[in-house]
Amino acid sequence: MPLGNGLANPSIQAIASDQAIASENVPKEEYGGTLGLLQSVGFLGRILGPIIGGELFYHFGKDIPFLFTSVILFFVFLSNLKLKDKLFYHPPLDRNGRI
Q1: How large is the angle between the packed helices 31-60 and 2-23, nearest 10 degrees?
Q2: What is the pLDDT of residues 13-28, one digit of tens each?
Q3: 48 CB-contact burial (10 Å; exposed 0-12 / middle 13-18 / buried 19+)
Q4: What are the tens digits of pLDDT across the range 38-79?
């Protein structure tokens, strides 16, 4: 898990920073707050995830935490499909198809 976090966190922060800059939805003065919120939510997930997963395992068995996680990820997938054009900035192309 530490290796995965070490590899993923810089990439996630770079993507979030790039999207915040490109979409122009976040003023430059609030970049730090945006990245801080990203870090806070990530840490909250790393704290609550094992607690909730452990409780589900204890009360309902070994399969339920995986089922619970798959249901959550399915809803995240659906919301990303619905919001993908709003979340990602696509610069306009010129007549030759270039940015």
Answers
A1: 140
A2: 777 777 666 566 667 7
A3: exposed
A4: 889 888 988 999 999 999 999 999 999 999 999 999 998 998
Structure tokens belonging to residue 34? 């945006």
Q: Between 5 and 38, whose confidence is greater?
A: 38
| Alpha carbon 38 to chain centroid, angstroms | 8
Could you say which DSSP state residue 73 is in? H
What gap in Å lies between CA 91 and CA 81, rounded to an integer?
19
Contacts of 14 (CB under 8 A, 6+ apart): none
* Integer CA distances (angstroms), 19 to 12, 43, 50, 87, 89, in order: 11, 21, 30, 8, 7
Q: Which residues contact 42 (CB under 8 A, 6 or more apart)?
A: 9, 12
d(CA 79, CA 93): 27
Q: What would the two tokens of residue 24 be?
A: 């122009």
State the greatest distance between any 2 C-alpha atoms of the chain, in Å, as a whole number: 60
